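Structure ticket #2291
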Amino acid sequence: MARGATVQGAKEFMKQGLAVGGVLVALMIGLVGCSSPAPSLTAAELAQKYPEAKYVQIDGVALHYKQEGLGRPLIFLHGLPTSSHVWRNITPALTYGNTIYSLDLMGFGQSEKPQNVSYSIETYVTQLTKFLENFHLENPILVGHDLGGVIATLYTIRNPGKVRKLVMMNAPLYPESSPFHISLLRTKLVGEFFTGDWFLKRILQNSVGTPGVMNDTLIESYVKPYIDDPGARTALLKCVREFDLRPTLEKEITPGLGKIQTPTLILWGADDPYVPLAYSKKLKDDVPQAELQVILRTAHLEMEERPEDVRAQLKEFIDK
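Resolution: structure written out below.
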């Protein structure tokens, strides 16, 4: 069933605009490489553009974060192609007893999007490590969605005993085939044509299964960082191409799942077309202290479709 959902998701994706992209590639492929990537906003320019935003410098990169509540540290990490905006309906209900940090990963949201830095998984895990050290956040609870879940899991594997609890949400933690849109973005010459607003819109629309949830206003809020910063689309490509997940999955993450002793919640959308439900069931078997909760009638962004259910599951797990 999960495999069928993936195939169906790819078919729907192709129906909703990839044919147009193919025509563009055929007409313009000779032009690729002739233009230079647009420059990203500097840390100073970001601070000027978002005067109310909080920033921390990690290895020379300005990372944006939101801080709420008071208590034990609770860290939220988003995935592709979103930002900390994805947690806006979740975190307010969890502020009692928790200091919540919602981080924009490098290259996303209001964080800096450097073009001279590697967007490898090692860079992201190092940035998370130094973020925690910078704020003296000991024994945190980590919540990661999509690639954010991969980063949180690898950090937990590498730091046994230093994570209070771990939440994996729709995270690609096995070296299986990539979702269709990721494969397109990775393709040299072709990927550059698939960072436009229309393509991001298709990804977001297919991230939910409930009609009307991902409306134009919500899509605009997710796409806004890509419009605000000229280098955001290049950063998206760099992340997709340089994250280099498969070797780390094969050598460290997948073999290390059985060594995780941290209490773990696996929270998944039942109809996720990008990271199928079968992944969550395998994780339940592989992670010793894991419990699995499935959010029914939701796809990849269950935080948008059923925020009340996501909040309830997270609160119950965190408060145990």
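Closing remark: DSSP finds twelve helices and seven strands in the chain.
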